[in-house]
Design a protein that fits this description.
Blueprint: E1 3-6, E2 11-17, E3 32-38, E4 50-52, E5 57-66, E6 69-77, E7 83-90, E8 100-101, E9 110-118, E10 124-131, E11 142-147, E12 158-159, H1 164-172, E13 176-179, E14 182-190
Antiparallel strand pairs: 1-2, 2-3, 3-4, 5-6, 6-7, 7-8, 9-10, 11-12, 11-14, 13-14
Length: 191
Protein backbone atom coordinates (compact mmCIF):
# COMPACT_ATOMS: atom_id res chain seq x y z
CA UNK A 1 0.00 0.00 0.00
CA UNK A 2 1.38 3.38 -1.03
CA UNK A 3 0.15 6.85 -0.06
CA UNK A 4 0.79 10.06 -1.99
CA UNK A 5 0.60 13.55 -0.53
CA UNK A 6 0.79 16.76 -2.57
CA UNK A 7 2.41 19.89 -1.19
CA UNK A 8 2.84 23.28 -2.86
CA UNK A 9 6.03 22.35 -4.71
CA UNK A 10 6.31 18.58 -4.41
CA UNK A 11 4.75 15.14 -4.15
CA UNK A 12 5.50 12.84 -1.23
CA UNK A 13 5.28 9.08 -1.84
CA UNK A 14 4.96 6.98 1.32
CA UNK A 15 4.93 3.18 1.45
CA UNK A 16 6.42 -0.01 2.84
CA UNK A 17 9.68 -1.68 1.92
CA UNK A 18 11.62 -4.77 2.95
CA UNK A 19 14.81 -3.66 1.17
CA UNK A 20 17.04 -0.61 1.55
CA UNK A 21 17.62 1.94 -1.20
CA UNK A 22 21.38 2.19 -0.62
CA UNK A 23 24.18 0.54 1.40
CA UNK A 24 24.01 3.07 4.26
CA UNK A 25 20.33 2.49 4.99
CA UNK A 26 19.41 -0.55 7.04
CA UNK A 27 15.96 -2.07 7.37
CA UNK A 28 15.07 -2.48 11.07
CA UNK A 29 12.17 -4.93 10.81
CA UNK A 30 10.35 -7.17 8.37
CA UNK A 31 8.83 -4.13 6.68
CA UNK A 32 9.73 -0.51 7.25
CA UNK A 33 8.29 2.80 6.02
CA UNK A 34 9.86 4.81 3.19
CA UNK A 35 9.23 8.41 2.12
CA UNK A 36 10.27 9.88 -1.24
CA UNK A 37 9.99 13.55 -2.17
CA UNK A 38 9.52 14.29 -5.87
CA UNK A 39 9.20 17.53 -7.81
CA UNK A 40 6.28 18.12 -10.19
CA UNK A 41 8.21 16.37 -13.00
CA UNK A 42 8.75 13.23 -10.89
CA UNK A 43 12.45 13.86 -10.13
CA UNK A 44 13.85 13.04 -6.67
CA UNK A 45 14.28 16.08 -4.42
CA UNK A 46 16.23 14.08 -1.80
CA UNK A 47 19.35 11.98 -2.48
CA UNK A 48 17.66 8.88 -1.03
CA UNK A 49 14.26 8.10 0.43
CA UNK A 50 13.91 8.42 4.20
CA UNK A 51 13.49 4.96 5.78
CA UNK A 52 12.32 4.36 9.34
CA UNK A 53 10.45 1.81 11.42
CA UNK A 54 10.65 -0.67 14.28
CA UNK A 55 11.90 -4.23 14.66
CA UNK A 56 8.41 -5.46 13.65
CA UNK A 57 6.30 -5.07 10.51
CA UNK A 58 5.35 -1.43 10.03
CA UNK A 59 2.37 -0.28 8.02
CA UNK A 60 1.41 3.28 7.01
CA UNK A 61 -2.20 4.19 7.71
CA UNK A 62 -2.33 7.88 6.76
CA UNK A 63 -0.21 10.92 5.94
CA UNK A 64 -0.71 14.66 5.72
CA UNK A 65 1.00 18.06 5.67
CA UNK A 66 1.22 19.72 9.11
CA UNK A 67 2.64 23.26 9.23
CA UNK A 68 4.85 22.54 6.21
CA UNK A 69 6.13 19.18 7.52
CA UNK A 70 4.90 15.70 6.71
CA UNK A 71 2.98 13.78 9.39
CA UNK A 72 2.72 9.99 9.05
CA UNK A 73 0.59 7.63 11.17
CA UNK A 74 1.76 3.99 11.24
CA UNK A 75 1.17 0.72 13.09
CA UNK A 76 3.94 -1.66 14.12
CA UNK A 77 2.65 -5.24 14.37
CA UNK A 78 4.63 -8.01 16.06
CA UNK A 79 4.41 -11.78 15.46
CA UNK A 80 1.68 -12.13 18.07
CA UNK A 81 -0.41 -9.43 16.33
CA UNK A 82 0.13 -6.86 19.08
CA UNK A 83 0.13 -3.45 17.49
CA UNK A 84 1.70 -0.18 18.59
CA UNK A 85 0.60 3.04 16.90
CA UNK A 86 3.28 5.57 15.93
CA UNK A 87 3.16 9.15 14.68
CA UNK A 88 6.20 10.42 12.77
CA UNK A 89 7.03 13.97 11.67
CA UNK A 90 9.45 14.62 8.78
CA UNK A 91 10.64 18.10 7.80
CA UNK A 92 10.63 19.23 4.17
CA UNK A 93 14.40 18.57 3.97
CA UNK A 94 13.94 14.92 5.02
CA UNK A 95 14.87 15.17 8.71
CA UNK A 96 12.98 12.73 10.92
CA UNK A 97 11.83 14.57 14.06
CA UNK A 98 10.68 13.21 17.42
CA UNK A 99 8.29 10.26 17.28
CA UNK A 100 5.26 9.61 19.49
CA UNK A 101 3.83 6.13 20.14
CA UNK A 102 0.80 4.63 21.84
CA UNK A 103 2.85 2.72 24.45
CA UNK A 104 3.36 6.06 26.23
CA UNK A 105 -0.44 6.38 26.66
CA UNK A 106 -1.67 2.74 26.73
CA UNK A 107 1.43 0.73 27.76
CA UNK A 108 -0.20 -2.69 28.13
CA UNK A 109 -2.67 -2.61 25.25
CA UNK A 110 -2.57 -3.36 21.55
CA UNK A 111 -3.44 -0.18 19.62
CA UNK A 112 -4.05 0.64 15.97
CA UNK A 113 -4.16 4.10 14.40
CA UNK A 114 -6.57 4.48 11.49
CA UNK A 115 -6.22 8.18 10.68
CA UNK A 116 -5.34 11.58 12.13
CA UNK A 117 -6.65 15.13 12.05
CA UNK A 118 -4.66 18.35 12.44
CA UNK A 119 -6.64 21.27 13.89
CA UNK A 120 -4.48 24.01 12.32
CA UNK A 121 -2.66 25.02 15.49
CA UNK A 122 -0.49 22.54 17.41
CA UNK A 123 -2.89 19.63 18.00
CA UNK A 124 -2.98 16.33 16.14
CA UNK A 125 -5.89 14.00 16.93
CA UNK A 126 -5.48 10.28 16.26
CA UNK A 127 -8.35 7.87 15.58
CA UNK A 128 -8.12 4.12 15.94
CA UNK A 129 -8.75 1.27 18.32
CA UNK A 130 -7.44 -0.22 21.54
CA UNK A 131 -7.63 -3.99 21.99
CA UNK A 132 -7.80 -5.88 25.26
CA UNK A 133 -4.82 -7.97 26.32
CA UNK A 134 -5.66 -11.69 26.37
CA UNK A 135 -5.87 -11.90 30.19
CA UNK A 136 -8.37 -9.09 30.72
CA UNK A 137 -11.99 -9.88 31.55
CA UNK A 138 -14.00 -9.95 28.35
CA UNK A 139 -17.58 -8.68 28.15
CA UNK A 140 -19.98 -8.94 25.24
CA UNK A 141 -19.00 -10.49 21.92
CA UNK A 142 -15.37 -10.51 20.84
CA UNK A 143 -13.04 -12.26 18.38
CA UNK A 144 -10.58 -14.72 19.87
CA UNK A 145 -7.45 -15.30 17.75
CA UNK A 146 -5.88 -18.77 17.51
CA UNK A 147 -2.63 -19.86 15.84
CA UNK A 148 -2.97 -23.58 15.19
CA UNK A 149 0.78 -23.98 14.65
CA UNK A 150 1.49 -22.41 18.09
CA UNK A 151 -1.39 -23.25 20.43
CA UNK A 152 0.51 -22.08 23.54
CA UNK A 153 0.62 -18.43 22.47
CA UNK A 154 -2.07 -15.96 23.53
CA UNK A 155 -3.20 -13.05 21.37
CA UNK A 156 -5.20 -9.89 22.10
CA UNK A 157 -8.90 -10.20 21.46
CA UNK A 158 -10.76 -7.84 19.13
CA UNK A 159 -14.12 -6.38 20.18
CA UNK A 160 -16.99 -7.57 17.97
CA UNK A 161 -18.42 -4.69 15.93
CA UNK A 162 -21.14 -6.56 14.05
CA UNK A 163 -24.73 -7.24 15.04
CA UNK A 164 -25.74 -9.64 17.80
CA UNK A 165 -27.52 -11.78 15.19
CA UNK A 166 -24.31 -12.09 13.12
CA UNK A 167 -22.28 -12.92 16.23
CA UNK A 168 -24.70 -15.67 17.27
CA UNK A 169 -24.69 -17.15 13.76
CA UNK A 170 -20.88 -17.07 13.62
CA UNK A 171 -20.70 -18.85 16.98
CA UNK A 172 -23.33 -21.45 16.04
CA UNK A 173 -21.61 -22.33 12.75
CA UNK A 174 -18.05 -21.88 14.11
CA UNK A 175 -17.34 -19.40 11.31
CA UNK A 176 -13.84 -17.95 11.33
CA UNK A 177 -11.88 -15.15 9.75
CA UNK A 178 -8.20 -14.60 9.00
CA UNK A 179 -6.30 -11.80 10.74
CA UNK A 180 -5.22 -9.30 8.05
CA UNK A 181 -1.99 -8.52 9.93
CA UNK A 182 -0.98 -12.14 10.59
CA UNK A 183 -2.34 -14.79 8.23
CA UNK A 184 -1.45 -17.58 10.68
CA UNK A 185 -4.22 -16.40 13.04
CA UNK A 186 -7.83 -17.58 12.78
CA UNK A 187 -10.51 -15.55 14.56
CA UNK A 188 -13.63 -16.99 16.18
CA UNK A 189 -16.50 -15.06 17.73
CA UNK A 190 -16.94 -15.70 21.47
CA UNK A 191 -19.15 -14.36 24.23
Amino acid sequence: QTHTMMSEDCIYVIGNTDTSFNAEQQIKGGKDIFVMKLDSDGNDKWDYPVIFGTEHNDKTTSAGIILGDLGIATNSIDKKSYSTGYFYNITSDGTLLATENSKDIEPDKSTKINDFYFDGSKNVYLTGSVEEPPNEKKTGYYIEWINYSDMESKYPVTPWTGSEEDAQRAMEWEEHQTNEDNYELMGYVRN
